[in-house]
Amino acid sequence: MRTIGVAIPIPEPWGSQLQRYRESIGDPMAEHIPPHITLVPPVDLAPAVATEVERHLREAAQAVTPFTVHLRGTATFRPLSPVVFVALAEGISGCESLEQAVRSGPLGVDLNYPYHPHVTIAHGVDEAVLDRAFSDLADFEARFEVDSFTLYVHDDVDGWVPGHTFELRAVVAR
To answer: Which residue in 37, 30, 11, 53 sits closest to 159, CA to CA?
Structure first.
């Protein structure tokens, strides 16, 4: 078995900025999880289905048009979950459409919570650090075009390693 996940990576310069911030507050998973918007959470798959999964992801990418994401400010899942994140001010519906296309077929996994696109900036740290992250990045803002998503494979040493990238290909009817 191998553990995979599917996500929209946060492009530069914001990806490195968020990565450094998460590391600076002592988030224990920061070094192993690049900044991203999750589409499919971690799932264990048999290597025999890898070809089927990649075919499914190519088809999903062809069904969704590129869209804009605007990250702005912070929010939290507390008290349900000890997480602080950068929120999406724009692009939620695009992420939801992409998530529905990707999280189907061989990746039709159940979620523990309703899908809510976000970029985690603090998790697994004490309440004071969560409060600090909420405040420190309250003015964070980034805008970028989502024209692809990435299949990540979990490695016990390196954490989440980007694998194949799938370009969004759907064409808007005129």
So the answer is: 30
